[in-house]
Design brief:
Length: 282
């Protein structure tokens, strides 16, 4: 379709260049970093005699790098992670059944998220299940993944409301964009309080596609209280464990332990746990 005339025409000829319009152009093209930095960089480029290509490439690299950071910030906000729970503040020494290198490997993302594998963490209250799940979620967001942290009861309510309003499918689609959905405290869901088959539907929808991190203070044997019937409970557990890492955290409550070590008259002066072996770092 292109004539020789079109090819020969100077593409710049029809453009009137008005430098005053630059901020407006950069806004229209959504290039806030370039808008902020171009003048300063132009000065340097003029001073140092950069080739135009270097000037352009530098600006574009800066825009791209900041865009990536902005996206991560957005994803951190949408993840609704509890504040202050990170892997660096998680004391692995106090939970011997949780292997630090295994958690760090999971925190790198990769194949387990690609195949929709799950993490299931069991243990009594206060042993760090929520902290660990949130910390892992945060690490994954920082790696570029999308995560949503929610108390399971909150999500079940959202799902039920969506079903009532015939919006279940669209909510499921929204949840589908998350590489990892953290369902904290699944054991607080009670089938007698409402219709919990929505939770089963979510588990089925994500099976072998999208990962879940579920925390529970009740073993599978007591999950009958969560789902409407035995068959559904069995089917849910079956899907969850098919590709899963199971963490059993059966230590003393970290909350209680730190409360005791802070108490007046306690032999420990540190606000963290008493030092064992050679865990001298931190
Ligand atoms: P759970 O969800 O198992 O009930 P949490 O994760 O809420 O327990 O932990 C209770 C409190 O103790 C939180 O403030 C958490 O940050 C802290 N905590 C628990 N385990 C650890 C740990 N191993 N290292 C650091 N803080 C911990
Ligand atoms: Mg918890």
């Amino acid at each position: 379709m292109m004539s020789t005339d079109d090819q020969d025409r100077d593409p710049i000829a029809p453009v009137t260049v008005d430098l005053a319009r630059l901020p407006e152009l950069l806004t229209a093209l959504r290039l806030p970093t370039i808008a902020r930095l171009w003048a300063q960089l132009a000065e340097r480029s003029d001073r140092e005699g950069w080739p135009a290509a270097r000037f352009l490439a530098t600006l574009l690299e800066l825009e791209l790098a900041e865009r990536y950071q902005r996206r991560i910030q957005r994803h951190l906000q949408e993840a609704e992670l509890p504040v202050g729970k990170s892997l660096t503040t998680f004391d692995f020494a106090s939970v011997p059944t949780v292997n630090m290198s295994q958690i760090n490997a999971l925190a790198a993302g990769g194949s387990w998220l690609d195949k929709g594998a799950n993490i299931l963490a069991f243990g009594p209250p206060g042993v760090g299940k929520s902290h660990l799940s949130a910390a892992l979620g945060r690490a994954l967001v920082e790696k570029g993944y999308r995560v949503l942290y929610t108390r399971t009861t909150d999500l079940v309510q959202r799902l039920q409301a969506a079903r009532r309003d015939l919006l279940l499918e669209s909510l499921m689609d929204k949840l589908d964009k998350y590489d990892l959905l953290i369902l904290d405290d699944i054991s607080y869901v009670r089938k007698d309080q409402a219709e919990t088959s929505v939770l089963f539907e979510l588990i089925s929808a994500r099976y072998e596609r999208r990962s879940l991190f579920i925390t529970a203070n009740k073993p599978f044997g007591q999950w009958d209280e969560i789902f409407p019937d035995k068959a559904m409970t069995v089917a849910a557990i079956d899907r969850l464990v098919h590709h899963a890492v199971i963490l059993e955290i059966n230590t003393e409550s970290y909350r209680r332990k730190t409360a005791v070590s802070r108490a007046p008259g306690s032999s420990s002066t540190s606000k963290t746990k008493k030092s064992t072996q050679d865990d001298s770092d931190e």
